[in-house]
Amino acid sequence: MIIAPSVLTADLADLGKACSEAVNAGLNWLHLDIMDGNFVPNLTFGPPVIAKLRKALGPSPVFDAHLMITNAEDSFQQYIDAGCNHISVHVEAVTHLHRCVTAIRAAGATAGVTLNPGTPIDAALEVLSEIDLVLIMSVNPGFGGQSFIPTVESKIRRLKQAIDAQVAAGGRPVQIQIDGGVKAHNIAMLREWGVSNCVVGSGLFNDSASVADNLAVIHQALE
User: Fold this and answer.
1) What is the pLDDT of residue 142?
2) What is the mean pLDDT of residues 9-21?
């Protein structure tokens, strides 16, 4: 199980320190929530901030960019240039999905597609052979701290079956990532459903304990 800390829930006034804390705790993925105030009702950060984080943290951490923006087809290269290793785009916001994900991979990053809670998985299945990850939103995107939507289970299980069939036929393996309301109390259940990559926000970044201590609780829940 990959644990990808969502930096949106960290202290944005000292983002570099928070990301360093996560990396020093042994977390090699950082989930970067990019919001444009248009596709989702919130605005976060963009390539200049990401480039500074990359410079501060060095080449090792995987920068996992979740583009909640309307112009991902035109702007994904900026995020790769800023240091992102992985780019996930929303099927609801991209007009030419196949063209977009193949262009991301041709540019040197791994590619993923993201599905909102109310979006069927059919669009992801159409490009499953061209992508590296499917991000299932278990909250409605735009803000951190929301409650987990349990009805995504059937979507995840169906997706896992499709990925297993693709791998059995000699095709590429695809990660299932989930984002929204992931905590120690439900992470083992998510792994049983087929999730291999969990985005964790307030379950890691909070005032009650350090990232390392919170991560230890999550690892204990997975044992």
Assistant:
1) 65
2) 92
- 3-class state of residue 88 by DSSP: strand
Determine the residue type at 127. Answer: V
H/E element holding 188? helix 187-193
207 is catalytic: no
**Annotated active-site residue in 33, 36, 64, 132:** 33
pLDDT digits (tens, 9 = 90+) for 173-191: 999 999 988 999 999 999 9
Going through the chain in order, the beta strands assigned E by DSSP cover 2-5, 29-35, 62-68, 86-90, 110-115, 133-137, 175-179, 197-200
Catalytic residue among 36, 64, 132, 179: 179
Task: Name the domain count of the chain.
Answer: 1
Give the range of the structural domain holding residue 136, as residue numbers without chain letter: 2-222
Spatial distance between the Cα atoms of 117 and 149, rounded to a whole number of angstroms: 8
Reply yes or no on whether 132 is catalytic: no
